[in-house]
Design brief:
With 462 residues, this protein is mainly alpha-helical. The protein contains 17 helices and 6 strands. The longest helix is centred in the middle third of the chain and has 30 residues.
Length: 462
């Protein structure tokens, strides 16, 4: 590698470290790990801990007696809460996730990216996966499953043993249902192209848990939970599908507890960030088209990967595109399940395209780095404000609004207090849960698709 390439690689590594360290600092200095849904998951982790140490104190809650996806993150939060104070358990969990993502992306790029552009690829991929919109929404189960899937992609080869496949299948199943479906999609395509008993045997334990989950859910009469809104007609669905990928861009606009945004009076920051998101995702979209076109013409660069794996990736990508385009807004209790396929799709494009991705990454690296630093810097500022004695994190608006038949109308009402309606993140939406955690007063259950499935307010409480 030429000296100039070493200098560039060092600079990109430095920028990635700066992103991570700034976010770590923000999480540490904040009064609590404010990140939308995350407070609810930490809250549920404390309830599960009470089932272990003092079941009578949480008798109003019901735990599933069958295996449930979305359980692993809750179990890890519970385990950390047995060792640490609850708020610090949440912070440590997020810090470990950030470090785990660094390791997974390192493994991934070491296999699929040439050393000459690996540093910039790591920066772009970390910002687009570890720090994607799902992280800021506090979708920790999804993020954990995605991390595990990235790790699996990095190590899976045709000769991977059944026990390795089984281990990843089980932990991904317990992490998130949609990622488990995509994991199964890839391996299903793999064995359809060439039968492999290692894959079949490896999928047996997770398949058993899946059937047990479906049976247990049916016997418990659990209905899929409807959250927020739905699409009002084809036009609204098309608008949503066309715009949603831009949420994977690096720009985030954090909302204050009163509903206004950090950049409320800084249009000169908001609009360049807005444009950057669409530019970055447009570049990713063009990369997808170019890779698939070159694959169809058999013009992809030479690779150490086998033809079987490359064909498996290509078919899986095509299926995921169809899934994104046609999946409904509510899919068995998961909101916008199609959107959960975007990051795995992007990873597979890098796996299939190899060197084809290089100019696209180089075109994006600086906009991504600058805007991601801006985003994390604004979050750091916000967390610094939470340390002020007079700061109240309790959201002015209700934690949950009544469902709407229009997702666009729902978003309009959700962001009624801010000038800007896009790329907003209500990081204080569940702030009241932190107060309940610290006071050990557990009332209510927002999400019922993990280990806790019911709350009976009328039950006698201690």
């Amino acid at each position: 590698m030429a000296r100039s390439n070493y200098t560039q690689a060092f600079l990109y590594k430095f920028l990635l470290m700066a992103l991570i360290f700034l976010l770590v600092a923000a999480l540490i200095i904040g009064r609590a790990p404010y990140m939308h849904d995350f407070a609810e998951w930490l809250y549920q982790g404390q309830i599960i801990k009470r089932f272990i140490v003092d079941p009578a104190a949480v008798s109003q809650f019901t735990m599933a007696n069958y295996p449930v996806p979305n359980s692993l993150a809750s179990a890890l939060l519970t385990g950390l809460s047995l060792l640490l104070a609850p708020i610090w358990a949440g912070k440590v969990f997020l810090l470990l996730m950030l470090l785990g993502w660094y390791g997974a992306i390192s493994l991934f790029t070491r296999r699929f990216v040439d050393v000459r552009w690996r540093a910039e690829a790591m920066l772009v991929l970390y910002a687009s996966t570890a720090l994607a919109t799902f992280f800021w929404y506090g979708f920790v189960s999804y993020q954990l499953a995605l991390l595990l899937l990235t790790w699996f992609f990095a190590i899976y080869r045709e000769d991977t043993k059944a026990h390795v496949i089984a281990a990843f299948a089980v932990v991904i199943f317990f992490s998130h249902a949609v990622i488990f479906l995509l994991f199964g999609l890839f391996l299903g395509v793999r064995i359809l192209l060439k039968w492999d008993w290692s894959v079949v045997i490896g999928l047996v334990p997770a398949t058993f848990f899946s059937l047990w989950f479906l049976l247990g859910r049916h016997l418990a009469n659990v209905e899929p939970q409807r959250i927020d809104a739905s699409w009002n007609g084809l036009r609204e669905a098309l608008i949503y599908k066309a715009g949603y990928p831009a949420m994977l861009g690096p720009f985030k606009n954090f909302l204050l507890p009163d509903g206004t945004s950090v950049f409320e009076n800084h249009a000169w920051i908001y609009w360049p960030g807005f444009i950057t998101n669409f530019a970055v995702v447009g570049t990713f979209g063009l990369l997808v088209l170019v890779v698939l076109w070159k694959y169809s013409k058999k013009e992809l660069p030479d690779s150490d990967e086998t033809t079987l794996l490359r064909n498996s990736w290509a078919i899986s990508i095509a299926v995921m595109i169809v899934f994104y385009l046609f999946a409904p807004y509510h899919f068995f209790g998961v909101v916008n399940a199609g959107g959960r396929a975007l990051v795995p799709l992007l990873l597979m494009i890098f796996m299939l395209g190899g060197e084809v991705a290089r100019p696209f990454v180089r075109a994006m690296v600086w906009p991504v780095a600058i805007v991601a630093l801006l985003t994390i810097g604004s979050y750091f500022y916000l967390m610094l404000q939470t340390r002020q004695p007079d700061f109240s994190a309790l959201a002015k608006s209700a934690v949950s609004m009544s469902p709407s038949d229009s997702v666009l109308d729902f978003n309009e009402r959700l962001y009624a207090s801010t000038r800007y309606k896009y790329f907003n993140y209500r990081v204080f939406a569940f702030a009241r849960r932190f107060d309940q955690i610290e006071s050990e007063q557990f009332h209510g259950l927002t999400f019922r698709h993990a280990m806790l499935i019911e709350y009976q307010a009328e039950s006698k409480q201690r």
